[in-house]
Amino acid sequence: MILYLGRRLLQVLGVLLAIAAVTFTIFYVLPSDPAAAACGKACSDERLEAIRAHMGLDRPVWSQFADFVTGVFTGRTMGTGQYALRCDFPCLGYSYENSENVWDLLVDRLPVSASLAAGAAVLWLALGLSAGVTAALRKDTLTDRALMVGAVAAASLPVYFTSVLLIHGLIRLTGLLPYPQYVPLTSDPLSWASNLLLPWVALAVLYAAMYARQSRGSMIESMAEPYIRTARAKGLPRRTVVVKHGLRAGMTPVLTLFGMDLGGLLAGAVITESLFGLPGVGRLFYGALSTGDQPVILGVTLLAAAFIVVANLAVDLLYAVVDPRVRY
Amino acid sequence: MTTTTTSPPVHGGGGAWRLVRAELRRRASLKVSLAVVALFALMTVAAPLIGSLGGWGPEEFDKSAVDPYLGGLPIGPLGGVSAEHWLGVEPVTGRDLFARVVHGAQVSLLIAFAATAIVVLAGTTAGIAAGYFGGRTDTVLSRLMDLTMSFPSLIFMIAMMSVARDVDRILLMTLVIGLFGWPGLARVVRGQTLSLKHREYVDAARVGGSGPWRILARDILPGVAGPVIAYTTLMVPGMIATEAALSYLGVGVRPPTPSWGQMIAESVAYYDTDPLYFLVPSLCLFLTVLAFTLLGDALRDVLDPRGSRT
């Protein structure tokens, strides 16, 4: 187990490094000149050269990349002479746009996106799994049909449409809920939840529908296994059979899906955050795109990648807990 | 990682397609979704022809259909629906919605289909190669799949689309969407190939003197075709949604070229004052995704009863 974990952590590091390299190459090689942007219109050639040297843009890409990686692990000093700037661990550089530390920007925005993702995930797991398991246990009945038709329809609804419907129906018409604004969990949990409820629902509808479909399928399969018959024959109560034997094995595929979705949620949040005007990492990314703020773009991409690999790793470890047949 | 044993589907020559046809007769929802898919496929192929039925071009302004004193809102009920403009007009510009939705279908679906084609080609090739040849080929390809799947694909697509300036946006979007789609299919195909490659009939072909290419083409490829078709059909909705998302965020198809995502992005601001303008592209997106999902479900039940579900 320890050995397995060590090997996987090394893999995670390798994957992140590879992703950083690809991102770095793409955004730094493509024709755009941040030095010219920083210098402004009336810019002399000497000044442009000086800014390039200050940003390190005059050196080859691999050397810039090496600096970047060193900075992430140990921190580094950026620029030279009187403009030298110490950037502490974990250094992702400074925004071209407002000279803020990228790591601080990310840390600042992450709670918003994390709140959005966590709440939505809880909601869709609860909805999706209960719908899927109910349908599986009542296979081929009216309940099953109705749930699955609903799930297919909900999975096809564009998120823009759901969001507008929610905003219009629950905010504009009834005034039941406030227009989403981010309130930190620590300052007022109730208002945190009521503000985020609509974005949660908008995001969860789509995923809940997919999870209902998936969990129904795998639950039907696992309930047909011989060990379920054995459990029944032993005279265990139906509830125990379903929850402890059926659900536990049937959850493995759902867990795989959950790992991938949870990791990808940070990326998906770009759209939800822009629809609801929430100041999360997605908005930060979107803003950085329009100004060509490469350090921020690189930082968000790396953060999103880290989420994906860590979520996948967590899921692989959870397999052993959920499914007694899996051992490392 | 999963410990479920997958029993591979049985394929018997033309039998699979006979099953598909039988299934088609049994499920009414399937007929409807096939009809919807056929309708939108027709729009993709013959958009200029169908669009011209309404008498307006997709980028043609009609200032007489909008009211300049009401901020350019369409004149008449339901967003300006009339004999002249069948689905009404766009606010401010007065462009014909019917023409735009039909041409938008062409752009949206063309990107989705082309990206799917890339995924099928790359995914099947990589999957078969990894599964059949094994060894180092398998290691390299599987690592590449893992790596590609670890990319935050949407973030990456958005970033790449926004950095690229003077390129054909439709072509670039197709390539970028296709680039991140292939590993999923490749994994399915690899698993299927692994389970096929030591079947008796494949061994028999090998003993009979067939070379590897002949075995791949004659024995393996038909065996993986079922899961590929099912997986592909279920993949199309995701492709359509991705195109819509990119265009919605303003990094995909740019106005005046219409696509559904781009139309939704423009119409969100009018959902209150001109609901039909917002509803038309949303509904098209919904129907297409729904139809492909139903179709894919049915195809999977018939062609791939147990495999390829992770």
From TrEMBL, chain A:
Keywords attached to this entry: Cell membrane, Membrane, Transmembrane, Transmembrane helix, Transport
Residues in ABC transmembrane type-1 domain copies: 110-319
Cited InterPro entries: BPD_transp_1_N, MetI-like, MetI-like_sf
Lipid bilayer topology: Multi-pass membrane protein
Transmembrane segments: 12-30, 114-137, 149-171, 191-212, 254-276, 296-322
Gene3D superfamilies listed in its UniProt record: MetI-like
Xref: PANTHER family: DIPEPTIDE TRANSPORT SYSTEM PERMEASE PROTEIN DPPB-RELATED
Protein name: ABC transporter permease
Native source organism of the sequence: Streptomyces omiyaensis
Source species taxonomy: Bacteria, Bacillati, Actinomycetota, Actinomycetes, Kitasatosporales
